[in-house]
């Protein structure tokens, strides 16, 4: 399980760093304007890799191709209506843009669908961090009765096994295994595909050393983001996704969001967060810090999808996590910075696979 | 509205044609074996064009690109869950492979979702032929309360208008219009995209004169298809789709299908067909003859999706429409012929568009 860092300590460290940034910008010999901001950013963040590698589940072409087919495969839902792509739509940056997901039987799930883009780079998966990686995550929703609703691992494997093309593709993707078409490999193949869902953005160009990649306003936003303490949690390659934190450090999240909520969601009650997994008091209201990569596209925000406007969401975060009220100028700069995190969806992922035909042996969809 | 032809007359004509085919195959001077079958096929069918043109709605690049975005656009459903592609999935030959569609609120529709592939070439749209073309069709499901559930044309237009990129794309796609973002143009753009969904197959190569494109068994299937009278209705470019016919000429469809039905569907009662549109007695049990292009992929079969196995469906058609019982050899040959109708989905259509972001003005999804 991922380490949980203390946000107050991080904020203190960030404040020291930002003071250094502010006061020493012109003190170091040979520094051009902006060099210090770039160096600080390079210390806090990192450019995206081409692929999120996993030694235990190597990303191979055959596995990724199979994983993509399974990602777009409606037969991985009992009804034949939903695929992974239904809630993590590649065409909309890996989310469904709904407060919380709609699943089997028109059930409304308890939490917002997180983006699949760059998700494999995170330290853990799900809002409560209960899965260690995308491979572990991918097997979950298929079997969840209010998501894809497949009754058992055996059902999923039997349905896929009835389609000769899948039997061949699993054998090619897992060539060293005596029994390649098993449920764990459904998740491994989908996970391998997800490890390719990386969205390089202008911010990566900047982190690579090209200061012209960001405008002055965007750099002001970045500096604000660092100096106000946002980067205390939203750091690293995915600008978040690396730790679990209490939501509502300074004041209650639920009180603070009420005025911004435009429509009811099923989770407007108090979501206890990771406590539901561990039943330890210290995990009350603990959630994974989400990645801010493509945050301009992954609305609505928070684990309950209750807030649609990114300015509102940012103001709420400043208030309940940092005890700070942002000015309109702060928000303008932060919105400009966020735009630099909007990356490019890989063309390969957008290319829909043609799915193989069912046979008379294939289990029928069940409404 | 499309003309309705008398199936008995057609069957008679086809029988004469097939007798000619059988008896004159070697009588004509200079004919190589198979020439007569090819000529007969060329008289009954036609190769697919590149695009299904429409003078009233010209197929332009900008319109097709916009139409593709709208085709994959979940915001054209009230819930944000369904797009056109949900029921007419490009990855599965333009169908959902369900008995009948699942729509807003988990409603189950009354009829099977027909394929969108090559649909624009048909003489009419919907199972009862109530729309004259794909443009007229495309506007229907968006507003249907048990399909995409958008409450009004105004709602759809307002939601799209709140997204600046759509305003620009409509202006580019309909450059001569003072008010390009209107509901009719939503349907026109989707229709233009659908006019590009053409799937050339080996059968087209054969119709173009290359007799080696079909195997001997496939040619036997084609000859069976013609001489038994199937081509009486399933003719033309789309091998069907050109006329409306009574389902159950020789005996009751519902009685004949009962033994083949594997699971219940909501429409296992008597669907009155086109009668529901016209309320004229002569339209009782009248349905559009579906295209057989990609029939190997567009299971389950018939207007109620009640039959999953193509052999069963073919046997039922022979029995209830032609009063004939097919042998296993007949069915083997017909299945081989059907495989030649399985075409290639255009790569462009499979390339998912990246959809533009909503704004704070965009109407929220409603569960």
What does this structure look like?
The structure is a homodimer of 367-residue chains. By secondary structure, the first copy, chain A, is mainly α. Chain A has 2 domains: 7-24 and 33-50 and 200-339, Cytochrome Bc1 Complex, Chain D, domain 2, CATH 1.10.760; 61-198, Cytochrome c-like domain (Cytochrome Bc1 Complex, Chain D, domain 2, Orthogonal Bundle), CATH 1.10.760. Chain A is built from 15 helices and 4 strands. In chain A, β1 (102-103) and β2 (107-108) form a beta hairpin. The radius of gyration of chain A is 22 Å and the shape is globular. Chain A binds chain B through residues 72, 74, 79-81, 86, 89-93, 96-99, 102, 105-106, 108, 262-263, 296-297, 299, 308-309, 345, 347, 350-355, 357-358, 360, 364-365, 367, and chain B through 72, 74, 79-81, 86, 89-93, 96-99, 102, 105-106, 108, 262-263, 296-297, 299, 308-309, 345, 347, 350-355, 357-358, 360, 364-365, 367.
